[in-house]
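Forwarding these from the shared drive since the link keeps breaking.
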Amino acid sequence: MRSRLPRTACLLRIIALCILLSHAAAYFGLTGREPLVLLPGPFSNEPPTGKAHLKQCEQMTLTRRQKRLCRREPGLAETLRESVRLSLLECRYQFRNERWNCSLDGRGSLLKRAFKETAFLLAVSSAALTHAIAKACSSGRMERCTCDDSPGIQHREAWQWGVCGDNLKYSTKFLKKFLGQKKVSKDLRAQVDAHNINVGIRLVKRGLETTCKCHGVSGSCAVRTCWKQLSPFHDTGRLLKNRYDAAVRVLSVTNAATGETELAGPHRHGQSPRTTDLVYLEDSPSFCRPSRYSPGTGSRSCAKDTSCQNLCCGRGYNTAMRLTSLSCHCQVRWCCHVECQTCVREEEVYTCKTA
């Protein structure tokens, strides 16, 4: 299915950056066995200025209009790179035990199809961009925005607004301007992509919370310092993965009252999908064998009791022994020093057979 996507092209280009950066996954070390720890990116508190900032904008895969916006917003180029890093790491983490593990290296064909996986990529990219811009504002990495200063809390006279809140209001406003989303296309694929992009933005908004700290005599909380703070991006990624698991296949219908085309889910008696549903148009491939959509699951590590059966697609798995070093027999020495020995442990490793 061919599609003209003028209003979502920039997000597809941002995801293309993920393709170029996907080889860096080995450096980040996401094996699926450790808890998610987002590594700090190469970002400083001071936004790049002058020629350095302009050069970064020119090096990014953006439209001509987006490059103009980038040049006017010192710090935006770094923020865009941060959003790519966030979306790439989160995608790989959420799909670490799935047949498709977010590997896009050399397989951009997947982005041309309206699979559930494409829906997740668009949503996680827009969510990461929304999150990164809001955080960049509150940390001072972007010059044209600052902390959120509109708490909107009742009994405001009893509260003292303090610290630097994440500026989600500016983030969403700027994002609409950056994406150039003015009018929804009649093209079905464009509608689906726009819907999934908005799902990512909405789920970030859901994670905005008010955090407060008490001040006063004997902890009386006569005065509270409060600020708005986004939840960790990993929380948004987990919500998006849940939406992916429950994604709705849609088709296009004509609204009898307005004459406009709308998305409808056949499994919901023709009703429109919810605003937080990820939607898709065509069933995904199995991802078991190498194809233009994925490298397959051959040689992938798996857990014998939980993931090998599904991940290996019925081909079975190989078992090997591996020696690993770990700290053991640790003792606390007076007062604050811990001494440990190094133990070597033999463990079984399982990998999917290629044939």
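-- next protein --
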Amino acid sequence: MSTTAGQTPPVGQQGGLPALADSSVALVHEWFGVTGGSEKVFRHIADLVPHAERFVLWKDSGVEEPQLRESWLARTPLRHSKAAALPLMPMTWRTLTRQRFDVVISSSHAFAHTVKLGPPETTRHLSYVHAPARYIWSPAFDGRGSSPLLALPRRALQAVDVRFSRHVHSYAANSREVQARIRHYWRRDAVVVNPPVDVDYFSSAPAADQAQPRDYLLGVGRWIPYKRFDLIIEIAEAAGLPVVIAGSGPEEANLRRLAERVRVPVTVEVMPSMERLRQLYWGARALLFPVHEDFGIIPVEAQACGTPVIGINRGGLLETVVDGETGFLIDSTTPDRFAALTARLGELHTDRIRANAATFSAATFAAKFSAWVTDAVA
């Protein structure tokens, strides 16, 4: 199996991939949330294959996404509990529909890559992987599935994950980090196709936004424990700088309590709009990102606004941040060590930061994704 995407073919005039123009295609995603990086990627994939049927396990409440066909799980209470539904997901993908397709492309961070909509002799199964399911393969990242009581179920699901995905003809990984995990866990090769980021939108802010004084530190993302927003607040306190945390999640109450105890101003922005998020990026002195992510779209969005990133020297940041040029990467998660780097932000140049972000554009994704698919179906 090839591990390089080859030469870039032209994308069709109507937004479709020429290699799939005469094929019946199914696009498959896990559950579809209101917001999320994997959902954004799936939308870009769907734009490239507009004639494809689109399948998900279920849509979360509030999702207004047309043309998504839900599985039978959507008609059960399990749609409200990903943890409870997890053991049933592989079998759900195998009983999704009686339809058969020439090409199946899955967008997977759990078990979507196990979907089988035709025999491998006549159906090409391709899978774009955001990450092998963390809760069964690497629960230490965020704690889900890490209980010793779950050790046996986790091993059982690992065996199912490998056995039910043998029919996949080709994998693409969203980063070198995920490529390495695919090789380690599944013993399979993968092409690296970084996710698309709307760098044009973030870089083209109104003049008033671009003229902001950049007088605070910023944290953006879901407020869950492994994202370490508590550490972001502690870093700001150690640096003696105001901080804005933007996002939403179950840790909101805990973060608000911590914000009341620290000695620097903490502003909490709940579910900011895209426009407001762009304003926040442009007004920030730096984005703090002390978390090990598979790729991380948020650091690229920040850099598109000329905002440097201070993060840990692991995971996707090794691909998206140029240490000493577009931000700083550090091996420690000690607040004082992070805070010390805020004094060096003047060494970085906005033009260089924005140029780095431009390499992760939607157009770049479309070209690399198209090349991978064309090679894989040839």
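The two ends are 12 Å apart (CA to CA). The longest helix spans residues 362-377.

- D.
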